[in-house]
Amino acid sequence: MNCPKCGEELNLLTAFYDAPYAGRILITTISCSCGFKHSDVFIGEFKDPVRFTLKVDKSNLFAKVVRSASGTIRIPELGLAMEPGPASQGFITNVEGVLMRFEDVVEMAKRWNSDDEEKVRICEEILEKLKAVREGEESVTLIVEDPFGNSTIISDEVFMEKLSQEEASKLKTGLTIVDIVGEEELMSLKENLEE
């Protein structure tokens, strides 16, 4: 595979790992001498769709958060959501790390909208709230949902529930699916392969 930045051949490193609570995962890193690098974590199995809910306070800022590439993370009180897209990456961090990721995105939105006083004000309010939560002065709800069941919050205080198929179908997966043949063509192709 060639580097999208310079065209040279990429270096690929892969490792399988049996992660507690997550199961078998594949960790990949592709890199190039020009500085291009991309890492990702792939979960090796699909499970039932789930939702984890944690009331965040100073006692659980270090609870582990595993977000697969198909996981959605929300903080409903602040209207924040991290949803998967085609370039979505999985990660393992803690609650404080998730809050900091949201802070980085809100800071970026604040810069992009620097000429709109109202949007800057809203961004500043959200940043103040996130900082207060990280400092243990306030509390928010952290929700992690995954239609493939591969994301989690590891804490004794977390509430876990299975999602219905209807709820799971409304979540983004981050997967790009291309339908190249219709159902009849697919069945015909399958029959031909079995012969």
Q: How would you characterize this protein structure?
A:
There is one protein chain. It contains four helices and eleven strands. The protein is globular, with a radius of gyration of 20 Å. The strands form three sheets. A five-stranded antiparallel sheet has the order 7-6-9-4-11, with no helix packed on it. It has two domains: 1-45, N-terminal domain of TfIIb, CATH 2.20.25; 46-184, Jelly Rolls, CATH 2.60.120.1040. It has helices at 95-112, 117-134, 165-169, 183-194; strands at 11-19, 23-31, 37-43, 50-56, 64-67, 72-75, 80-82, 91-94, 140-146, 152-154, 159-162. The longest helix is centred in the middle third of the chain and has 18 residues, at 95-112. With 195 residues, the chain is α+β, with helices and mostly antiparallel strands.
Search tags:
195 residues, alpha+beta, N-terminal domain of TfIIb, Jelly Rolls, three-stranded antiparallel sheet, 4 helices, zinc ion binding, zinc, zinc-finger, ZPR1-like_arc
What is the element layout, followed by pairings?
Elements: E1 11-19, E2 23-31, E3 37-43, E4 50-56, E5 64-67, E6 72-75, E7 80-82, E8 91-94, H1 95-112, H2 117-134, E9 140-146, E10 152-154, E11 159-162, H3 165-169, H4 183-194
Antiparallel strand pairs: 1-2, 2-3, 4-9, 4-11, 5-8, 5-10, 6-7, 6-9
CATH topology of the largest domain: Jelly Rolls
What is the residue-averaged pLDDT?
85
Number of domains: 2
The CATH homologous superfamily of the largest domain is called ZPR1, A/B domain
Got a strand count?
11
The dominant shape is: globular
Low-pLDDT runs of 5+ residues are 176-181
Percent of sequence in beta strands = 25-35%
Class from secondary-structure proportions:
alpha+beta
Number of helices: 4
Strand line-up in the sheet with most strands: 7-6-9-4-11
Radius of gyration: 20 Å
Share of helical residues: 25-40%
Major sheet attributes: 5 strands, antiparallel
CATH class of the largest domain: Mainly Beta
Assign the CATH architecture of the largest domain: Sandwich
Q: How many angstroms separate the termini?
A: 34 Å
The SSE string, one letter per element, is EEEEEEEEHHEEEHH
GO molecular function, one term: zinc ion binding
Keywords: Metal-binding, Zinc, Zinc-finger
Organism: Ferroglobus placidus (strain DSM 10642 / AEDII12DO)
Protein name: ZPR1-related zinc finger protein
